[in-house]
Amino acid sequence: MSLGIQKVEAQDAGHFIHVEWEDGSESRYPCVWLRDNCQCPHCFLRSAGARRLVFEDLDVNIVVKEVTMPDRKKISITWPDEHASEYEAEWLKKRCFSEEARAQMREDLFLTECHHWGSDLRLPQISFEEVMYNDASAYKWLCALKKVGVALLTGAATRQGELIKLGHRIGFLRLTFYGPTWQVQDKADANNVAYTTGKLCFHTDYPVLQHPPGVQFLHCIKQTDSGGESEVVDGFHVCNKLKKQNPQAYQILASTAVDYTDVGVDYCDFAVQCKQRIIDVDSRGEAVRINYNNATRDTVFDIPAEKVRPFYAALKEFNDLLNSSEHKFTYKLKPGDIMTFDNWRVLHGRQSYPSGPEVTRHLEGAYADWDVVMSRLRLLRNRVLNKN
């Protein structure tokens, strides 16, 4: 961005700075925000990218004493206490308070673009080796994971430990009570319904945690000949359908705190309890996280008795939409495949498969937090795009 400044002036008794740009656009900046974000060494530690100015020293009613334009690439401000601040044009333009500029910044920082899908999903597929050793491929993978919510990595070795390598590629994995990784296979006295051969209904993992893992990895090491097909559904897409079809049901699921429980022994012994709303929403009422696991939904239900049946009716309608043939996507993992998906958005399940004297199906699973994944995505984007 090389846009220059045409004109700058103080407005509203010095509470705002008005900037006219060379392209004819205009921006208004509150002076309290400008003072709070002074970029001088006294106020900002550049080596850490962090503010040094303590909030106690900020006058929220501050006005500008003088504003000048040394050249078309910056503005200079003198404050009432004679402190001087300079702001680069490019820095200011990116932080314009217009709706258009704020929307662009949201997209740049958080990749807010979301591609909804149903049974027509075109599953993004990328080579595991390319993701591990090629930045452009790793960036492509994480972009697909963020926008589509699911992506398949192919060609990994059929042994345990490949997810540890993938974790190192993005940063690190999320440790839970089931360990840094966990083995999905038929086990005697299973401490989780996933460790059986039965059907797994659509669910998100770990809503019993206050902060459920954001991303899940499932690596197919061994696959059964019969059954064991995996299924995924775009929870945000289904939420939109429910909101249009039955707004009251949507509101019930977005406002009712559901009890979850998980008690047992694995990586260590645990007794976990949590309350979650099936649909977490933002300030606009849009779904931002699904917390639904029928297996770990507690028998305890901390709501008035008269609200129980309406809740069940709402959840039944949501569950029926999840299982609709137009919404779910079915596939069968092959040995060496790694399915990666957004655990806050995509619900997953599994069809049953025959049990036998030996292990016929073996997946290794792991989690990562979205903070870690988004950090790597931003770093890869800067690295890949700066090469072009």
UniProtKB/TrEMBL annotation:
<dbReference type="InterPro" id="IPR012775">
    <property type="entry name" value="GBBH-like"/>
</dbReference>
<comment type="pathway">
    <text>Amine and polyamine biosynthesis; carnitine biosynthesis.</text>
</comment>
<dbReference type="InterPro" id="IPR003819">
    <property type="entry name" value="TauD/TfdA-like"/>
</dbReference>
<dbReference type="InterPro" id="IPR038492">
    <property type="entry name" value="GBBH-like_N_sf"/>
</dbReference>
<dbReference type="GO" id="GO:0005739">
    <property type="term" value="C:mitochondrion"/>
</dbReference>
<dbReference type="Pfam" id="PF06155">
    <property type="entry name" value="GBBH-like_N"/>
</dbReference>
<keyword id="KW-0223">Dioxygenase</keyword>
<protein>
    <recommendedName>
        <fullName>gamma-butyrobetaine dioxygenase</fullName>
        <ecNumber>1.14.11.1</ecNumber>
    </recommendedName>
</protein>
<feature type="domain" description="TauD/TfdA-like">
    <location>
        <begin position="117"/>
        <end position="367"/>
    </location>
</feature>
<dbReference type="InterPro" id="IPR010376">
    <property type="entry name" value="GBBH-like_N"/>
</dbReference>
<keyword id="KW-0124">Carnitine biosynthesis</keyword>
<keyword id="KW-0408">Iron</keyword>
<dbReference type="InterPro" id="IPR050411">
    <property type="entry name" value="AlphaKG_dependent_hydroxylases"/>
</dbReference>
<comment type="similarity">
    <text>Belongs to the gamma-BBH/TMLD family.</text>
</comment>
<keyword id="KW-0560">Oxidoreductase</keyword>
<comment type="function">
    <text>Catalyzes the formation of L-carnitine from gamma-butyrobetaine.</text>
</comment>
<dbReference type="InterPro" id="IPR042098">
    <property type="entry name" value="TauD-like_sf"/>
</dbReference>
<dbReference type="GO" id="GO:0008336">
    <property type="term" value="F:gamma-butyrobetaine dioxygenase activity"/>
</dbReference>
<dbReference type="GO" id="GO:0045329">
    <property type="term" value="P:carnitine biosynthetic process"/>
</dbReference>
<feature type="domain" description="Gamma-butyrobetaine hydroxylase-like N-terminal">
    <location>
        <begin position="11"/>
        <end position="92"/>
    </location>
</feature>
<dbReference type="GO" id="GO:0005506">
    <property type="term" value="F:iron ion binding"/>
</dbReference>
<dbReference type="Pfam" id="PF02668">
    <property type="entry name" value="TauD"/>
</dbReference>
<keyword id="KW-0479">Metal-binding</keyword>
